Structure formats: structure tokens, C-alpha cells
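Extended Data, panel c. Modelled sequence:
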Amino acid sequence: QVQLVESGGGLVQAGGSLRLSCAASLRTFSRSPMGWFRQASGKEREAVASISWNGVYTYYLDSVEGRFTISRDNAKNTVYLQMNSLKPEDTAVYLCAARRPSPSPTAHYRDAAQYDYWGQGTQVTVSA
């Protein structure tokens, strides 16, 4: 059974930083594209960032470009989301997602429907 466990969320003041981690019990992690999504109260889920399995190719939501960084450590089966200069509008539940193995080292996805496994999420709250 695949499990994705997020950690690192919390309450932070605007301008602060948080680092989210997602530990995956996924045997094929090193060949799996990964993504971070968020869902704010009353809003649709949106892709925040995604990364190819070789860690080279990434995608960022326009509103977080330059402030957030996605990375992965395939030896630890973990993907990270470093969030700097946080804003109140970043407040949401942040979810980690994994896709089944891809033959392409460049593949990365922003569409939630492309992912096969999801974590439970971690709350990020940014106060003004």
C-alpha cells in the first residue's frame, strides 16, 4: 500500500518561510514524477509545483514562481517544497502527489488527474 506523508506545515507570519516534506513509501519513487498541490477553503485544488523523476524539470504556479522551490531526494524517497516570502493568500492545505513510474526522465505534470497517489495534506496558515 502506497503512503505519502506530508510534514512541515504550520502557522507563520507573512514574509516567513516553511519547508514541507513528503515521505513516500513508493518502491518506484525514483522513477515517479511528483507534485505539490494546495486547496484553500472554498476553492478548487491547484497545482503549486511539480518535478520530474530526475529532478531537473520543474513547473511552478505563476503566483509562487521565485518564492517556492520543489526538490527531491530519491535516496530518501522524499520530495520537498521550500516556501519563502509567504503571503496570506498562500494559506491552504498542501498535498503531495505521486504518479506511477514514467519512462521519460523529463515528464512532470500539473494536472491533478495525472497523479495516482495522494497524501492527506498539511495545513499552512500565513497570518498578515
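The chain has a mean pLDDT of 97. This feature is highlighted in the accompanying rendering.
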